[in-house]
Amino acid sequence: MMDAHVELNKVRRDRIAFGGLVFLSLVGIALSLYLLIIHYLPASRDSVLFQLCSVGAFNCDRVNSGQYSVFLGLPIAAYGLVFYFFVLFILILRKAHLESKLLDAFVIISSAAAAIAVFPLFALSTFVIKAFCLYCVIAWLCNFAIFGLSLALVRGEDNFFAIFRGAWKELRENPGALHCIAVIVLFLVVTYSGTSFLTAMLGSNRQYANLQQNMRMEEQAFDEYVRRRPVPMDIAGLPVYYGDPSAKVTIVEYFNFDCHVCRSAAPIIKSIIDKYPGKVRLFLKHYPLDGTCNKYIAGRGDGLSCRAALVAIALQKSPKHREYIEYIMTKKGHLKRETVLEALEKIDMNADKLRALLDEKIAIKILESQIDSGEKFKIQGTPSFIINGKIIPTGLPPARFLERIIKLEIDLAYGEQQ
Length: 418
Hints:
The protein is of the alpha+beta class. It has two domains: 2-213, de novo design (two linked rop proteins) (Up-down Bundle), CATH 1.20.1440; 242-414, Glutaredoxin (3-Layer(aba) Sandwich). The chain has 15 helices and seven strands. Strand 6 (384-387) and strand 7 form a beta hairpin. The longest helix is centred in the middle third of the chain and has 53 residues, at 175-227.
């Protein structure tokens, strides 16, 4: 009678554990799938579910869309999706093969791995990202609960190590065990491939959504540019950096020697000017993002970009002006003192020759006036382009957008038939 009661309790416990594991696996699948969707589709972040994910101190977007949300090319949520489907699959197999110690071992190993994986993710959120995602935290709790229920389901009267001894014995003595492993491996391959395909589809949808959004933003920026009233540009004393000095379309670029975007912009703007020979000219004005010389910038830097700008101003009437600037702007990384010295050596220029070209006090005043003129256009950073007195958004716009505006100004200046 006692044995029957114990057996009844064991059956009841197994049912509860099995039902709990199925429920938690389905919850995990739903959470991982949703996190995967919001990782790729920005529009989904307007939903009520996303607002709940970021309630209070939680920040779902920062955790699930940042640089640490991807591992080996796939979002972390994708691995969670594979894991929860795997647990569900093993439970189904185990339901059909109740005495399989091999399946018990798979349940323990997979659930233990998922529980252990929570610790580095928790550390990453705590010390690196410094933010948590509510749904991620719920998924972590699911992992611990799945591990606990897995132990309750598979151990029975055996100790922990007896499960693995039994699995090894079953693998050696039961020919069907290899078929079971083959089925499990095949399921993992299919699930991983399916998840990868899903992420690729979602990624394509995000690219399309981003493209649509960028097109709308470009159209809005173009309309704003057309409606904007031109502001007089002071280019007196400035040498033409590139293009025909007699051209009717004038571009003024506010740039900074320590600016990698400015380096990327240089070949693009030159290639566009080359398409319209004799019609476009480019001037450069200095706008160092360093409070050492720029009173509109908070915080002082090393002052190197300011010194490099002063040298360039001294060289404005020299044939070496463009060569000096191009040498520095073709170098990658942050501006270094050695780079400036190399540029001066290349053009055979030293401090005495620079002072002979222009007094440093005058160069400082010119730099200050160029910086002040940038404030007239509300310069937010570099590069900033002013085309015939009208500014376009700070930064490097797509080449097609930049050319579209320049072509518009050419048509206005020379006539559409030119």
